[in-house]
Amino acid sequence: MISLRDLTVRYGATTAVESISVDLAPGKIYGLLGRNGSGKTSLLSVLSAYRKPSSGSVTIDGSDPFENRALMRDIVFVRDALDAVEGDRAGTLLDLHARMRPCWDAELAAKLVATFELDPRKRIGALSRGQRSSLGVVIGLASRAPLTILDEAYLGMDAAARMAFYREMLADYLEHPRTIILSTHLIQEVADLLEEVVIIDRGRLVVHEDTDTFRSRGVAVTGAAETVDAFAAGRAVLAEQSLGGTRQVTLYGALDADERRQAESAGLSLSPVGIQDLFVHLTSPERTLEAAR
Amino acid sequence: MFDDRSPIYQQIAESIKDDVLRGTLKEDDQVMSTNQYAAFFQINPATAAKGFAQLVEEGVLYKKRGIGMFVSPDARARLRGQRQERFFTDVVDRMLDEARVIGVSVEEIKKHIDGGNR
Fold it and tell me: In this protein, which residues make up the domain named ABC transporter (chain A) (predicted)?
């Protein structure tokens, strides 16, 4: 179990992560969702023992991962920087991980290198953006670490490479279940793969729940302006737009059968809100967190 | 395959029920394992497991320990019964509402069903 308690990360006067408390059960695929600059990487850096929290705590199975040799061996954190020497060859970096990672699967690494059409002789500094990301994914998956953290691992990958990444990740997870945390803002692409979503916005926790539950939270209500307003009164409104006398509001919070009937008999039409839209609404700049609660 | 309209586990359950109704899945046929299903449709296996669990609860599927899940012998008959009950309210009444709104008479509908408009 991963437990964050009042986790806060500050850089000088800037607060990147603010008092986040969350528990993540082992063996699931999590999506850490947030806009650019929302604090995803800071949170993951603490989780993977790359930095100490400013305040609050992280424990993994009860222990603090920071400078904890036994825990750190079991955590792989793939981030933008690749944590590599730019002049080294890609193959050298893979060899290094093969020696460091107790569960490294050389066969899987070779297969992924072929899938992503990576040339191990190429120097890391000479890789394209997408190839760099692919190399990170090879390290992340072939390490087969009990805690696998992939921070926006798809950057620069084209659609075909991203699909290959998701496919290979799921296939290997099915064979070797482990905790995987994927950070992303491309929710639509990965939503079906995620068992739970954790959404942060401006350093704060907004949502943590299973993906299917989150998916059914949004509903768009359309109809005559005053009828829509009456129905929306007292509910969390994420967005609204009007055209002439017609208004549409996006509500946060699943409607039960009675509420649906009530809306329909008032002549309102209800439609689902896609998971990507729901995320965008929940993390849009003009929103305050409190309204979503 | 899946959309945002409803939880995916429910969509999985519905699509397997459809297969049973159409006869694509026959009684005592083995259904895919949750892992096979997850890999095939590119979804989280916990979601697939939830869909299957619902079907077991509803009696559409049954489990054989260590082997897998199978279609219950009476699943098709029961699903047909349930869908028939809903047929007039869910399908016919809705069609009649639409017909009223757009000015299609019941006579015209009857004529269409009898083949007069084909």
Answer: 2-227
Q: Which residues contact A215 (CB under 8 A, 6 or more apart)?
A: A191, A275, A278, B4, B7, B8
Separation of CA B106 from chain center: 29
- Domain boundary (A146, A180, A213) is at A213
Q: Cβ contacts of residue A249 below 8 Å, gap of 6+?
A: A220, A221, A228, A232, A237, A239, A240
Cβ separation of A216 and B6 shorter than 8 Å?
A: yes
Indicate the DSSP class of residue A123: B
Contacts of A195 in chain B (CB under 8 A): 44, 46-47
Chain-chain contact of A170 with B47 (C-beta, under 8 angstroms): no
**Domains of chain B (ranges plus CATH)?**
8-73 (1.10.10.10), 76-113 (no CATH)
Angle at A32 between CA A23 and CA A135, to 5 degrees: 120
Chain A CB contacts of B47 under 8 Å are: 192, 195, 211-212
Q: Is the ipTM of this complex over 0.90?
A: no
How does pLDDT run across A90-148, given as a tens digit for each residue?
999 999 999 999 999 999 999 999 999 999 999 999 999 999 999 999 999 999 999 99
- CA nearest to B7 within chain A: A212
Say if A66 is an interface residue toward chain B (CB within 8 Å): no
* B37 contacts chain A (CB < 8 A): no
How many CB pairs (< 8 A) connect A and B? Answer: 47
